[in-house]
Every structure is written in C-alpha cells, then in structure tokens.
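thread from #wetlab-drylab

HS: before we spend reagent money on co-crystallization trials with adenosine-5'-triphosphate, can we at least see a predicted complex? here's what I'd submit
DV: go for it
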Amino acid sequence: MTFCCFAILNCRKGNSSLQEPAEGIAVTNNVRIFSYNSLRSATRNFHPSSRIGAGGYGVVYKGVLRDGTNVAIKSLSAESTQGTREFLTEINMISNIRHQNLVQLIGCCIEGTHRILVYEYLENNSLASTLLETIISGTMSKHVDLDWPKRAKICLGTALGLAFLHEEAEPSVVHRDIKASNILLDRNFDPKIGDFGLAKLFPDNVTHVSTRVAGTVGYLAPEYALLGQLTKKADVYSFGVLMLEVISGSSSSKTAFGEELSILVEWTWKLKQEGRLVELIDPELIDYPNAEVMRFITVALFCTQAAANQRPSMKQVVEMLSKEVHLNEKLLTEPGIYKGHKTSKLNGAGTSSEGTFSRGDRGKKAIKSTISSPQFNSSNSLTQMLPR
Ligand SMILES: Nc1ncnc2c1ncn2[C@@H]1O[C@H](COP(=O)(O)OP(=O)(O)OP(=O)(O)O)[C@@H](O)[C@H]1O
Ligand SMILES: [Mg+2]
C-alpha cells in the first residue's frame, strides 16, 4: 500500500495554489479526491430525484460527472467521523481491490464532516430490485425477468468476486453483508459485489451490519449472528442463501414457506428431504437445465450447513458451479437456521430495526432467537466435500 495520497492532501492544505483538474479533483495513485462542490453539481445539489436508495451507511445518489461518466455517490452518515488519514487509509485499501465482479470505488470526498464515496454506476441496479420484489426507497421495485443463463452467471460471478475477496485480495476481506441489495448488476446483468471493506470506516458501536429483514434474519450464519464468530465461512453461508434466492426468485426475508411458515433455507432442506426440490425453482423459470439447477441448489445447501467448517471455501464453490462435477450428497449435513425476532410482517421487504443490530447487542438477540445447528460440532473435514 502506498500513501502518496496523503502527501497530495497535505500539499493542498499548505499550498492553495495547487493546480486541480477542472472538475475539482485531486488525483492520487489510485483514489480520486472529489471536491464537495463537484459532487453537488453531479447530483444537482443532491436533489431527491437523483436519490437511488439508502442503506445502513447512508444515502446513495446517481451522479453524472462533467465528463459524462455516471457514478453512484454514497454519502456516509455522520457516524463515520474518522480522521482524514484513517479514512484515506481504508479508502486506499478498498480501491486497491479490483476485480470484474467487485464494484469499483472511483474516489471519495472528505471535506469538513462530509465523507462521501464515489463508485462506478451499475445500470441494472441491485439483484434485490431486479429479481426480488423488494421495497426500495418506499416503492415496490420493478421485477425484471431473469432467465436461467442470467441467474447462473449471477451466481458464478458473485462466487468469483467473493473468492477474490477471500483468497486473493491483499489484505483478504470478509464481506459480512452479502445479500441481494449488495449485488449490483451491470448492463449485461453481470454481477458485481458492492460495499466490501466498508465496515472498518465505522466505529464498532455503530450499526453497520443491517440485515434489513422483518421477522427473520435471512442471511446470517448462526455462529456469526449468535456468537459473533466472523470468518469467511459466514460469507459462504450468506452466499448460499443468496443462491437460493436467485433460484427460487423469493426473498430470504420471508417466513412464508410451506405450512410451517419456514424460512427459505429451512424450506429448501425440507423439500430436499421429501424429494420435492423441484418445487423450490422459481415458477417464472420455464426453460432451464434441470441437472444444473439441481447442482446449484446442492451447492447452496453445502454453503448453508450449520457447521461452518463443513462449508466449502469460495474457491471450491467456484469449482462446483463452473464444472459439471458430481457432488457427494452423503456428506451434506443440515443447514444452520437462525431466526431473529418474530414479527407479523411476512413479506419482510422493508427496513426493520428489529432485524438490524450492531455487534454490541448481538448477545442480547441470542436470548430471543432460535438456532438450529445439530451438526455444530461436527468434525468432518472440509476436504471431504470437494467435488469428485
Ligand atoms: N454502484 C451502484 N450503482 C447503482 N446503484 C447502486 C450502487 N450502489 C448502490 N446502489 C443502489 O443504492 C441502493 C442503496 O444502497 P446501499 O448500499 O446504501 O443500501 P443497501 O445495500 O440496501 O444496504 P446496506 O447499507 O446494508 O448495504 C441500493 O438499492 C442499490 O441498488
Ligand atoms: Mg449496499
């Protein structure tokens, strides 16, 4: 990691005659520093019509830079009050992580209390708004038809991006918040993972892992939700849930599957036990290769196993998804099921404070939660799951 960006900032402070490019940008080795004014004009003064969403970190606007480039501008909420140096260290780290399946951070703005991130803009918005009927910014999002080839590449591309974060990025990154709204889709519906590396920009007591579900916490690995054990395998679990959403076209935040009002992972396991897995597949998917879809479901089940050490690595997941491998289902064990508060909301699309918590209060949640992890202490070795 290089720190020449600090030199440039210091230089700006000390020497107001430093020449800036026309758009008010100082360019560092790989992070562009935008002036607040330039972002204000890119978003027409942060006009509500430029707003494309809001999440746990703040509000996101669509902006157009002077050269015509579309960008997503994420204005971080006030809690991110890190000093300039610490903030830039993290920003520099994030922008060094580049992969075709990761949303590229273009630059940032640090002026006064403003902390703003500028990302490449993805035309097809998030998987949540494209595939799942989700309430985003108060309105039900548009449902776009995704055929199987598109869904398959969304799964594989996301797996590639996550495998890169886990195994090739330097330093390696546990995402912590893999979910449909953090998978952005470009104009060809190729997926890019957003919001990686952001957790460090916020102090520990600030809510940043927002599960954003009403009723059931859909993506959290039980050992992470209940015990705070954050490993790459927690991401693998979330990725498995995401795959089930892609295949079923249903949100994991629903608790409406079957007569027992199960959550998606539970429901999938039940269907598997009863030999009815075909019922999981999105009825809107008419033409699909049955064997491949079944393999994808099996991979998702391997990922969501209760015992974290039984779950494959993301590299193994990539292998399992990209090749016609035979998966040894005898090694498959029950999924881990974490349920947060019960609420009356069944659709679970909106933001719910009940499903949102910081690391600090996770222990309290555990008392009110239920966990199903019969294989939690299983000692089977991970390598046994390798595709044959
Ligand atoms: N680079 C981008 N290009 C296009 N749209 C984006 C981009 N980044 C975010 N968005 C959209 O902005 C909205 C808000 O994103 P944001 O990341 O703030 O919230 P979230 O993903 O719903 O929750 P969280 O804060 O937990 O990540 C999402 O609906 C997403 O589709
Ligand atoms: Mg997000």
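DV: Residues 1-22, 204-216, 341-388 have pLDDT under 50 and may be disordered.
HS: ok that's useful, forwarding to the group
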